[in-house]
């Protein structure tokens, strides 16, 4: 059974930091890209960052580039999202998802993470940034 379990969300003041974790199981980790997405109330789900488990290539949305860092521990089948300099507009439910390996290259070329390229999703973790 494919499982993706997010953890690490919480309440933080603006300017603070959080690290989210995504623990994956039930599939061959190296064959997939792992992406982080977020959805704020009343807004569409958007791609934040993604990483290729096989070669470590990454992509960041403009809104988080320079503040967020994605990393992968293949030995633990876990992907992390280090979030620094958090802003109130970062408040959302954050989801991790497993998708096609090529999705990172596609995101780099197109400037956006293709949400429909991701097949397996976690339940999400709430991040709230207070002003």
Tell me what you see in this structure.
This protein has 131 residues and is mainly β. 6% of the residues lie in helices and 50% in strands. The chain is built from one helix and eleven strands. It has one helix at 103-110, and strands at residues 3-7, 10-13, 18-25, 32-39, 46-52, 58-60, 68-73, 78-83, 92-100, 118-121, 125-130. Strands 2, 4, 5, 6, 9, 10 and 11 form a seven-stranded mixed sheet that branches. A hairpin with a 5-residue loop joins strand 5 (46-52) and strand 6. The chain is globular, with a radius of gyration of 13 Å. The N and C termini lie far apart (40 Å). The mean pLDDT is 96.
Main sheet specs: 7 strands, mixed
Q: How much helix, percentage-wise, in residues?
A: under 10%
Helix tally equals 1
Query: Which secondary-structure class do the elements indicate?
Result: mainly beta
Give the strand tally: 11
Radius of gyration: 13 Å
Q: What coarse outline follows from CA principal-axis ratios?
A: globular
Mean pLDDT: 96
How far the N terminus sits from the C terminus, by CA atoms, comes to: 40 Å
How much of the sequence lies in strands comes to over 45%
The succession of helices and strands, N to C, reads EEEEEEEEEHEE
Low-confidence stretches: none
Helices and strands, with pairings:
Elements: E1 3-7, E2 10-13, E3 18-25, E4 32-39, E5 46-52, E6 58-60, E7 68-73, E8 78-83, E9 92-100, H1 103-110, E10 118-121, E11 125-130
Parallel strand pairs: 2-11
Antiparallel strand pairs: 1-3, 3-8, 4-5, 4-9, 5-6, 7-8, 9-10, 9-11
């Amino acid at each position: 059974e494919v499982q993706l379990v997010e953890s690490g969300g919480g309440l933080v003041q603006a300017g603070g930091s959080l690290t989210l974790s995504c623990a994956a199981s039930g599939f061959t980790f190296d064959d997939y890209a792992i992406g982080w997405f977020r959805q704020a109330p009343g807004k569409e789900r958007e791609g934040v960052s993604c990483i290729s488990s096989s070669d470590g290539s990454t992509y960041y949305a403009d809104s988080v580039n320079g503040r967020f860092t994605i990393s992968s521990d293949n030995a633990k089948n876990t992907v992390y999202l280090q979030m620094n300099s958090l802003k109130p507009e970062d408040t959302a439910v954050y989801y991790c998802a497993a998708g096609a390996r090529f999705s990172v290259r596609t995101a780099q070329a197109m400037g956006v993470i293709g949400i429909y390229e991701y097949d397996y999703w976690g339940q999400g973790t709430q991040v709230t940034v207070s002003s």
